[in-house]
Amino acid sequence: xxxxxxxxxxxxxxxxxxxxxxxxxxxxxxxxxxxxxxxxxxxxxxxxxxxxxxxxxxxxxxxxxxxxxxxxxxxxxxxxxxxxxxxxxxxxxxxxxxxxxxxxxxxxxxxxxxxxxxxxxxxxxxxxxxxxxxxxxxxxxxxxxxxxxxxxxxxxxxxxxxxxxxxxxxxxxxxxxxxxxxxxxxxxxxxxxxxxxxxxxxxxxxxxxxxxxxxxxxxxxxxxxxxxxxxxxxxxxxxxxxxxxxxxxxxxxxxxxxxxxxxxxxxxxxxxxxxxxxxxxxxxxxxxxxxxxxxxxxxxxxxxxx
Length: 306
Fold this sequence. Notes:
Blueprint: E1 10-13, E2 19-27, H1 34-51, E3 55-65, H2 74-90, E4 95-102, E5 107-116, E6 132-135, H3 141-148, H4 155-166, H5 170-179, E7 183-186, H6 191-198, E8 204-208, H7 218-223, H8 229-238, E9 242-244, H9 250-256, E10 265-269, H10 274-283, E11 289-295, E12 302-305
Parallel strand pairs: 3-4, 8-12, 9-12
Antiparallel strand pairs: 1-2, 2-5, 3-5, 6-10, 6-11, 7-10, 8-11
Helix pairs in contact: 1-2, 3-4, 5-10, 6-8
């Protein structure tokens, strides 16, 4: 695989029948519970392999932890690693080793190896006019986790956000591979708008805000100022490429640019396959929403409607 696209992972052909997928990701805690942090970080790292249409096979831990100064008990590190191991086990893979360093602030993630047929991996480019856009998780996680740092989130709102981050992208990826899609990416640090923009090679896109799933409480928290700096930078950097309907509010615009952790998959699927994809996702109990379409007008521009 070349470097002509901003893809989620590297693909290296080993033979005519086998290629490996390699990715790495780690970050600082997004929740207070160390076990949940470990599980979320692992789900986030695994997502890049699913976004390439691959199957994870094994992983290595990447750990930063303040071990020398006694700032945190080692039991916290044990809980983080246990969360990561349990999530990897849910994905059906072992964690076979890793590396740790002494660090002032805890950090955790995985380097994940997967496999895919060299002629069947997905990229985030290749969408064609008329393709439908499908999102498999609600957005707004960055806003909610920012508010969590101030202990200013209703427990039910926190629970929904945590459940979303903990959910593997394995099921929708497996279903999409059976149906057939044109392009795929996972929605993470660049937000929905940023990752959609990376899909637009020679084409444009139109989103319908009313169809986009947003986590409970995210809009209210954003209106109160709980917006990550990364989300604001996302929106600013994309300004030349966005066409806003005046009815889309300033808060809604921030939500669309919100930096996600362990976000959903974004598919571009042909109009002849959208009904089958949505039907199979619903039958499997997988949340998903058709949120827009690829258009020929205004290449490399996202038009956002109410």
